[in-house]
Amino acid sequence: xRIIDIxxxxxxxxxxxxxxxxxxxxxxxxxxxxxxxxxLNEFVSPVNDVGxxxxxxxxxxxxxxxxxxxxHENDLLYVCRILKIKRExxxxxxxxxxxxxxxxxxxxxxxxxxxxxxxxxxxxLEEANHLATKQFSPASIFRxxxxxxxxxxxxxxxxxxxxxxxxxxxxxxxxxxxxxIITYSTSGQIAALDSLFDKLPDEVLGRxxxxxxxxxxMVELMKLSAIRENMIKLKELKELxxxxxxxxxxxxxxxxxxxxxxxxxxxxxVFQIQQRNxxxxxxxxxxxxxxxxxxxxxxxxxxxxxxxxxxQADNRKKELLLEWQAEIQITQAEIFLAILAEAPLVKLLQDxxxxxxxxxxxxxxxxxxxxxxPQHNEFLKLVPAVEKLYKESTKAQENKLLYQAMTEKSxxxxxxxxxxxxxxxxxxxxxxxxxxxxxxxxxxKQGVLNANAPIEFLNREERKQIKEVFNxxxxxxxxxxxxxxVHKSIKSGKINVGVSHQFKAFEDYMxxxxxxxxxxxxxxxxxxxxxxxDWESICKNxxxxxxxxxxxxxxxxxxxxxxxxKKRKNNTLQFLTPKKPITSPATIELYPSExxxxxxxxxxTVNLHTEFTKKLTHKMEEYRREIMPNIVNxxxxxxxxxxxxxxxxxxxxxxxxxxxxxxxxxxxxxTSKNLLEANDKIVxxxxxxxxxxxxxxxxxxxxxxxxxxxxxxxxNSIHANYSSKYFGKEKGIIIYSFISEHxxxxxxxxxxxxxxxxxxxxxxxxxxxxxxxxxxxxxxxLDKPDKVEENxxxxxxxxxxxxxxxxxxxxxxxxxxxxxxxxxxxxxxxRPTVKI
Length: 836
Known about the structure:
- By secondary structure, this protein is mostly helical.
- Strands 5, 6, 7, 8, 9 and 10 form a six-stranded mixed beta sheet that branches.
């Protein structure tokens, strides 16, 4: 059996050798307990004393033992000094293997750790089998196993032992999957999978290609041709998916595993897939992954198209409103002139009627003369126009013109979204959802609607506008309104798409309720949140602390004790930023005189110190392939990073590399996961640089911040969105970045300008988790109520929070605040106004 190369050479060497301690760390890890001192007094040989203390310190730091010949000299010197033994008197070659084994047992007993053998080895195998069903990356399983062993109080074995366990686990798990395919598959399903390797006729795509290649790429543009092409693929994949879904479900694969196998098919050539024994397993995962992904594309297209159409309808409404206002200006002028002309006659009537000087005969004669005036007829002719203006007030006319604009845009709109509404498999959180029922009716009638179409989901005004046509049913307007309500329901989560990655119901992303009820303790233990079991007492403690903090904060403000907060006359608060001490600028020249450094030189220099290219491993991690040469990696990064493309890079550097090498690097090595890990190597170097103390305000507190930058899109992508504040009439995206106070860019992600930035805060915080030493919290004397007892307090609260993250108003949500509390991150939000 060939053992999988889980870690590369440098990573394996780092794992198999003791950690390199600083002086402060040596004081912590090599501290000798009282119990250990008694055992040291029983030893005769000083070698045993030094060996035991050194093994104990390394085990305390890593949870595992190391070979004696890997002990660091600086650590031996420190241990000899605290034991008052001369270093020259210690010869580790005389440290007997029997003594080493006995000392390891003593260390395990000292810390209450179980030896990796027997029952605990079996538990490790069970955890490895569990992890294999959730993720297929050997490196991820390796790290998760190490975390599991530490959390369960089990000794971490050697790299080779874990590598053998993971290799056996993955191979046996894959063997089980292949056996299930043979057992549960039908001849029709296998034939459908094999048909993906057939070549399509030339007239289909204009070139001879394989059927499977047709489903590898989806066009994520708003062009009508792209939408139609994607819809054809969706119909074909839908038929294939429902033929194979029973077989796929029988494999019980996690989403991570499906994505892993599908990515191999996306990157590999057809002949490479055909040669693999697992080709049917790969194709099953590929079909499910691509069908879900294509549904994501179509829903995103639907959302963008609907929003764009509603925006266009609103603009068209404004144009119609201006035309209407221009028309009524003439009518208004006539009405005003008629009123001005009629007013003197009305005044004359009043004066005559109330006059005491004229007789009744004289008054009657005057009345008749006024009534016979032809001006009254002209005035009365304007009554219908006045009634029309009254009925068509500006607000009412705006609504009417909006529905008129929607009707005008409906035809072009339906060309884009009608097929999506027909074939996408929508579901709802409530089975009797009115919008979903209307959508199902639309699908049943294949978009051909009449007056029998459900209108319960429409509001009163919309129903009225639907019926105000000669046949009693405005079909074009109805379809636009249906799409509008579907768009709104998808955004609110009322309508979902179960066969997608991004638009499933919220519950589908969570642990199933039955599994949670059955395995609550093991799931909480695996997640490291056992301290949250007694949630009621924790909640009471949090409520008390929140009340106390509010009283303390606003009490200081009201008393004028806080020098950085002042109350204005209108009862709002003015915050004053403390002045920083003025420092003289540095006179040292940090940059070269020419101020220009080539990108290649930057990449080469950074790689010399970080070796980040070693993270650009092959996408398939079962058996590690060689990493591409650095010059090829740099060229690929520059080609994509500078928007040159690898084709142009191959032409410019044809003497040093070929297009095939660049394509191989781009397809198999430059993945988002690898790039994040490569960036982590650079961040780790920045974290370890002594110059960090210059930028950090507090030694044991790491501050970070996140914010988004808006970028306009040149292409009409389905992921771009309108934002009049930043893009005017154009569309754009957000590049959201996380940065620490010592300036490493720790995480970056991209999303639509219409998305809420708060959704992506936790991603960045989870990705960058540096090792920080927690110190005891300074205790304050608080007057606690009787209902909050000492034993109800969370033990984790006894440690100072040593990580602080700041963001603006767009990153705020209650969920983020709660999750940051669980992650021991102090979450600071910038609020625009505060009133008390």
